[in-house]
């Protein structure tokens, strides 16, 4: 997409969720005004993003006063989305003055550890995206490991008991027909608090279910992880699970100039850090490697391309919040959207090693995994059953090139895939 032609493609147009057409003229007028305001906000945001990307600070700054009166953190989904993206653009402009930027954004720019963020916990409980992914992985993993005696599962960063507790329960049910397998879970996480809480919870759960269990915490980031830290032993049926974490490794080899250097193309780059990591994992001959990532490309070089990708992805997320936030208070919804806002700031305002939100579409992960010697694996799951158990109207799970796409209506938001070495 050319920076001078930021028009949105019809098949991925931003979703502006509106109520069914009413009959009262006043209501129709309100909807028309909402649509008009939404389209105007999109135009202004893209115009500002183009000026920002090209380094025209004065013109970018001139756009923001036109956006601010139309955007609102308490308005409709497009207004709230625009407020977050306008803040991210303003943050990027202020970055031209590093001292001022650090003073103004020191608290908001720091991405919260999801496992420590109460808003993330609230989001994962109130909305079924992650629960869909957890159920898909658990069903596939339990079936694949049904005949194994020693099972070793490595958690590459999630540390979420909402995944691990039901999985342990599933292994316990599987064990009722035979001798229970020895289950070992290794959790890699940079937060010692997350590891301690998860370990206590899982050990207690396993004791209550009377199954042989071992929990090994590894208190490092994925960038620091080595093969020896995982203590994989001969005879173990090994599996890896990465839930919204592997993309951070893509930052290690992207040493873009801090002042937003020239376009280097949007092709899949030769990422040394990622390649080394996948080679290390494959050398341990895992039976399965599960990957969950956003179905969005936030690793593009050009700001305007990332900006459009972000608008599409978070537009769908904000819409699903609007439809399903009946159980949330205004404060809780605002907390979730501010959490998304921190991700948006990272996508829009940060470059080089500073930017961590580098999700890529499943098609790009195929290239990386196949290049590292992995092959796609079949996933056993009952998508209809999962939707009925955890979802509501509007959610879908769709097969796509050996992956399962978790969608909001027709928009894929998360891709779940499994790989064999």
Brief summary:
The chain contains 13 helices and 9 strands. The protein has helices spanning 25-53, 57-67, 77-94, 98-109, 118-126, 129-144, 161-174, 192-209, 272-283, 303-324, 330-349, 362-371, 383-390; strands at residues 150-156, 182-188, 213-218, 237-243, 288-294, 375-376, 395-400, 403-408, 411-420. The radius of gyration is 22 Å and the shape is globular.
Write the layout of secondary structure elements.
Layout: H1 25-53, H2 57-67, H3 77-94, H4 98-109, H5 118-126, H6 129-144, E1 150-156, H7 161-174, E2 182-188, H8 192-209, E3 213-218, E4 237-243, H9 272-283, E5 288-294, H10 303-324, H11 330-349, H12 362-371, E6 375-376, H13 383-390, E7 395-400, E8 403-408, E9 411-420
Parallel strand pairs: 1-2, 1-4, 2-3, 4-5
Antiparallel strand pairs: 5-9, 6-9, 7-8, 8-9
Helix pairs in contact: 1-2, 1-3, 1-10, 2-3, 3-10, 3-11, 5-11, 6-7, 6-13, 7-8, 10-11
Question: What can you tell me about this protein's structure?
Answer:
The two termini are 36 Å apart. The protein has helices spanning 25-53, 57-67, 77-94, 98-109, 118-126, 129-144, 161-174, 192-209, 272-283, 303-324, 330-349, 362-371, 383-390; strands at 150-156, 182-188, 213-218, 237-243, 288-294, 375-376, 395-400, 403-408, 411-420. 47% of the residues lie in helices and 14% in strands. It contains 13 helices and 9 strands.
């Amino acid at each position: 997409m050319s920076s001078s032609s930021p028009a949105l493609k019809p098949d991925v147009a931003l979703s502006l969720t509106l109520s069914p057409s009413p009959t009262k003229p006043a209501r129709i007028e309100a909807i028309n005004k909402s649509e008009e305001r939404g389209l105007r906000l999109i135009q202004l945001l893209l115009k500002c993003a183009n000026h920002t990307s090209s380094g025209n600070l004065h013109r970018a700054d001139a756009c923001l006063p036109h956006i601010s009166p139309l955007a609102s953190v308490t308005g409709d989904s497009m207004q709230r989305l625009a407020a977050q993206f306008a803040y991210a653009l303003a943050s990027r402009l202020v970055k031209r003055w590093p001292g001022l930027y650090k003073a103004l954004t020191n608290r908001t720019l720091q991405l919260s550890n999801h496992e420590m963020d109460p808003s993330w916990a609230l989001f994962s409980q109130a909305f079924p995206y992650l629960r869909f992914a957890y159920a898909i992985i658990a069903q596939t993993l339990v079936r694949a490991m049904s005949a194994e005696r020693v099972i070793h599962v490595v958690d590459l960063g999630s540390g979420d008991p909402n995944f691990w507790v039901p999985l342990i329960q599933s292994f316990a049910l599987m064990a009722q027909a035979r001798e229970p397998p020895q289950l070992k879970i290794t959790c890699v996480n940079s937060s010692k608090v997350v590891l301690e809480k998860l370990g206590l919870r899982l050990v207690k759960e396993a004791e209550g279910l009377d199954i042989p269990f071992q929990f090994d915490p590894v208190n490092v980031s994925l960038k620091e992880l080595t093969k020896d830290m995982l203590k994989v032993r001969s005879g173990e049926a090994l599996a890896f699970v990465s839930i919204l974490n592997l993309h951070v490794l893509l930052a290690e080899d992207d040493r873009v100039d801090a002042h937003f250097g020239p376009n280097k193309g949007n092709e899949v780059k030769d990422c040394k850090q990622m390649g080394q990591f996948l080679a290390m994992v494959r050398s341990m001959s895992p039976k399965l490697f599960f990957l969950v990532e956003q179905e969005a490309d936030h690793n593009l070089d050009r700001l305007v391309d990332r900006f459009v990708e972000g608008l599409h992805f978070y537009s769908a997320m904000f819409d699903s919040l609007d439809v399903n936030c009946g159980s949330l208070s205004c404060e809780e919804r605002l907390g979730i959207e501010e959490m998304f806002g921190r991700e948006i700031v990272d996508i829009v305002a940060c470059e080089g090693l500073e930017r961590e939100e580098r999700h890529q579409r499943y098609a790009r992960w195929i290239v990386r995994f196949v290049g590292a010697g992995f092959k796609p694996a079949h996933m056993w799951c009952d998508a209809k059953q999962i939707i009925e158990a955890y979802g509501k109207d509007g959610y879908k799970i769709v097969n796509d090139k050996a992956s399962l796409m978790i969608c909001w209506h027709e928009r894929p938001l998360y891709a779940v895939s499994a790989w064999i070495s």
